[in-house]
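REVIEWER CHECKLIST
Item 1: Sequence provided? yes
Item 2: Single chain? yes
Item 3: Sequence as submitted:
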Amino acid sequence: MSAPSNVPELRPWQVQALERMAQWQRGTFLVAAAPGAGKTRPALEHAVRLLYAREADRIALVCPTAPLTRQWAAAAARLGVNLAPDAPELDPPAGFHGVAVTYARVAQSAERWASQCRESTLVIADEAHHLGEELAWGQGFQLALGRARRWLLLSGTPFRSDASPIPGVDYDSDGVAQPDYAYGYADAVRDRVCRPVTFIPFDGAMSWRVGEETVEGSFADDVASDQRAKRYRTAISAELEGALPKILGEAHRRLTGLRETDHPDAGGLVVSADSDHARAVAAVLHRLTGSPPVVVLHTDAQAHRRLAEFTDSSAPWIVAVNMVSEGVDIPRLRVGVYATTAKTAMIFRQIVGRFVRTVPGRPIEGSWLYLPAEPTLRAHAAAVDRELVPLLRRKGEIDPDAPLLDDQALQQANAVEDELLKPDWQALEADMAPAAQLDLFGGATPVADGSASLGTPISPVGTAGGPVPGAAPAAAGGAPAATQEVPLWQRRQKLRDERHRLVAELGRTRRASHREINAWLNGRIGIARVEDATIEQLEQSIEVLYDALAGRA
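Item 4: Structure as written out by the authors:
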């Protein structure tokens, strides 16, 4: 059997990870892979194998955010696996192989989930560093899913800066996390799985006022510790034409060049310090480009919708505050400006991860990230190409300035930096310019022609007499179904929406309540509640409602 035509061949590292997983029978298995490398695929391929072999009868996919649950459900559907996103319980709806939910949902209903969890439940924990043994999510996760025989943990950074152990992660005698399979940034760029990134630091003469005193200096100067935050904020000031606006102009010229040559929908991202700063940055970009950029604020209820629209559009620029967490997947990003005040290593790596993703069908082109030449950021840029495993933080080694790798942590880091600006200060002047660039991964250069590929394609592998991951097995008793153009959860949701609309319409016609119509309809179909209905029963419900509206029922 061959893989479905719409499913890409497995990458070599994914094959290696699957081979390693094939020996795994019980306990946890930690995959540490660089952002953009494609850790979703081997996790789902292994799930297919276990479902085929009847070694697992359902999947509990747990991740940090609700948008991620839908991304996982869509990816699973391409392999014939049906996951119900944001499901209220572990028992999946009829016709589904499992659920995709957030850590928060699991923690809120941990006892109910524990009563539904079986040894044969396959647990997949995406971005597992969000868990902590002593924290609510970690405790709820362990209580809810502790009965499962297998936990597959996925993370690009399998360590926590608060030193709390991640449930299920193995640590050596020194307390260092030990992945079962690791695939770092350098590996991904060498294999042309991720983009090479070029860092372009900017620096220059700056001056700012503190009370009655005027202070001058550049990032190359040794200023007093209480002046560093003020110097940094002067560099990213959107009000001083010689500061961030000058760098935004450089970044826009870079992006324009890419869009005018061979990447017409290439995008740029500015990560701002706060909401006011983002609006000021947006105003500068509007003036520079002639059109307003997309602005995404973490306080905006429509933030995820705006992100999705930008991802699928050809708009040039997006300005964001905090909205750079796991799951923000915009492969067309080629140019970035680092203008947040958060400077921890983990947040820096998270932001860099937004620019390493590749576009299927395009050569492995480079990305550029403009950042203040602040010593801490320069050190992060120089270190980010090192192997992942040696950087794993030792348990008990606490860095109070390095918060968790998520949007809330980024907001907190910005707030800490802002506190350092007190007492009152004012940015006066700046004359910034790009300094010598730093090439990520030891000077790796972008591939300019179309001859590059994502490594040598390797056909999906299976065990002797077993299934071929990626192939389309026949659906039977929990085995994955054929690859679908529309995920089952989306079909089901559309049918439920149509049913709801027709029930309301019939209620108005018959002058009956929604509850009365629902009860009559469930009786006709033979179900106790609509949540339990199969696809076929939902379709039957809609037919009955149309007949009733036409006077035939």
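Item 5: Key structural point noted by reviewer: The CA atoms of residues 40 and 72 lie 8 Å apart.
Item 6: Recommendation: ____
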